Structures are given as C-alpha cells and as structure tokens.
Amino acid sequence: MISRLKEISLGNWMLIGMILGLIVGLILNFYVNDPFIKNVILIDNVFTLGGTGFIKLMKMLVVPLVFFSIVVGVASISDIKKIGAIGGRAILIYLVTTALAVTIALLIAGLIKPGVGLNMVGLAHTNVTTNVTLTDTVLSMIPDNPFSSLANGEMLAVIIFGLLVGIILAKLRDETNVVNDFFTQANKIMMEMTRIVMKFAPIGIFCLMAKTFASLGFEGILPLSKYVICVLIGLAIQAFVVYPSLLVILTRLNPIRFFKKFFSVMFFAFSSSTSNATIPLNIEKLSELGVSREVSSFTIPLGATINMDGTAIMQGCAVMFAAQAYGMDLGTTALITVIFTAVMASIGTAGVPSVGLITLNMVFNSVGLPVDAIGIIMGIDHILDMFRTAVNVTGDAICTIIVSFKNKSVDLDMFKGKKKPGKTWDDITRF
Ligand code: ASP
To answer: Does residue 382 sit within a domain?
Structure first.
C-alpha cells in the first residue's frame, strides 16, 4: 500500500490535495458560522498555517531564485544579441497574446450580454483607485538601489539588475571566475531548495483550497452568473484553444504533453491566486519539459510581472458587463481603447491576488465607465482570480516554450518524455 502511494507523482498529489481541499472546504462552508469551526479548529488556524505558510515558503524562494538564475543564465549565453532577441520575442508574444485575450473577452461578452437587464441604480460606491501608468512601469524597471529592490521583491528591477550583472560577468569571464562560481553555486542551492519546498505543495494546496472554499460566499454568484460564465468561457478558450494552437503552429510540439506536465503548475496558481509565488514551480516544471533555464529564468519572472492574459479576459468581460448594465454603447474606438488599456493594465498588474481588480479602474476610466460597477463584481472576484491566475501562468509558460524553441533551447527528447530530466544545471542548460 505504502509503496503504491510512493509511486504517485508529485503533480498527482497536488491534484489530490486540491480535490480533497475543495471537498473539505465545501463541507465546512455549511458550518462556517459556527464559531468553534470558524475560529478554533480549522479556518483561522490549521488551514491558514498550512496554506499561508506554504505561500510564504514559495515567496521566500522567488527573489533569490530569480536573481541567481537570471545572472547564471545570462552569463552562460554570453552573446548580448541573443539575450536581446529572447527578451524582444518574449515581450512581443506577451503583448500579442494579451491583446488577443481581451478581444476574445469582448466578443464573448458581446454575445452573452452579461450586464443586460441589471439594475445599476443605488450601487455602493467603491473607493478602489489606481495610478499605474506605462511610464511608471518603465521607470520602475530601473532600480534606485538594487539592494532595496531585491529586498522589496520589485520584480522588474530585479530582472534588469540580474540581466546587467549576467552580461558583465560574461564579458569579464576570466577576471571574475570566483564571482561566477559563487553565482552558479548559489543558484544550485536555490534550485535544490525549490525541490524540497515543492514536496510540501500537496499539503499547502489542500489547506489553501479548504480555507478558500470554507469561507467563500456563494450567494453573490447567482445574479452575476452570466458574467462569471463569460469570464470562464474566455479563460477556457485562451487556455485550451489559443495557447495549444500557438504551440502547434509555432513549434509543432504536442500541447497534450505540455498540459500533462503543466497541470500541477495551474493547480498551484489556482489555489494560491498569485503568479509571483508560482515562478519557482513554473521554471521547475518547464525544465522537466526540456526547456532551458537560460530562457525560462528570464521570461517566466518577466511574464509573471507583465503578462496577465487571464486578468485581461476578466477586464474585457467586466467592461462589457458594466457598459451593458449602464446602457452605454461602446463604439469601435472605445473598444480599441479598451484593448490597448487592458494590455497596459496587464503590464501594470503585479502577480499577486486581486490586483487585476485594482488596475481594472484604469480600463474603466479610459472609456468613461463609472467605476461603481467594480463594487458589484468585487464580491465574486476571488473565485475568478483563482481561475485567471491559472491562465496567467499558462500564458507565461507557453510563451517561454515558443521563445526557447526559436532559440533552440528546448530538449525535444525531454519534451516528448523520451529522456528523463537532468538534475544539474549543466544537464539542464547544455544541449
Ligand atoms: N492574481 C493574479 C495573478 O497573480 C493577478 C490578478 O489578476 O489579480 O496573476
């Protein structure tokens, strides 16, 4: 029996944790008002400890893992033009897929009309505000002080500083052997730490799911069910039609192979609602699919920061929902403005829970929609955040595979499962 349990892969354990957590959470939801259950036994203690504790462990890995692996990855590329090509391609694919995602959302919401017939009079005002502009995002890439950026987890600044250190290490190769070895070994330590932390993922996912579903209010979903359906259809199309098609058209790789390995990353993103904390797992699973860390260590953190296709889908649906509810007719120019601002909002949305709702203000403002409507969808946003985060991280991974493929950095035998993933940095990066 025990040996059978040992044969179950970590990914399947995560799935088991997710399903069990969902069931336990839904059962507890019936008793959520019982003070004993609520405060003493489960929700505020055991589940918070297991769930939040696990997210904290993952977050603990993010900055050192991203920084060391970008430095080592870039230093091993040595050709600056190649780094530029990887970055350029990744940003282009990120922007195009996000624009596509909003367009799909606008079309679906145009068809399903989630906001028609909703009475928007007397809605509570919401105070959510945002000041994120493109200029802010570009400026935030330059660290005032790289050490404080590292300490505060400012991802874009960490990426840029890591890139610069890596490029210079490659340039000064013979004069900086000691530092080079330091980074290579520090990176190995972080990779090993990631593998160890990941072993706790099934328990962490179980606790996160149980906690979320035990306290989730389902009453709010009914009047907004059409809106929820729109978002879910949009997310499903993006994840299971757009991404696989891109993978097949641009790389001829089998999307089923990808999803088989990648579902565990989606489960984790779903349970935690944060792309940022998913970065280590995403890089790890892609390397098991033969994707070189040279590319993924750079493009995954970049994607977790600037690429939010799932969030853009929610924002597209929310705009249509509000416009229909207020009886406003959005013309072509307004729709193009929505696509543009939603792409910008995706760049400005940090990969942490619920931020997409905050940057939604920016999209609403761009076409003069009253932000009050955000107040009604806020109640059910948590569950949608879970689904859209799973799509956000999938978009990052698909783009990374495409960019790596073009860069000849995917071990095709490993992708096809003909070869087992290597354990060392050299195994993973050398093809
Ligand atoms: N939770 C999302 C993420 O981390 C961002 C959002 O849409 O709120 O990817």
So the answer is: yes
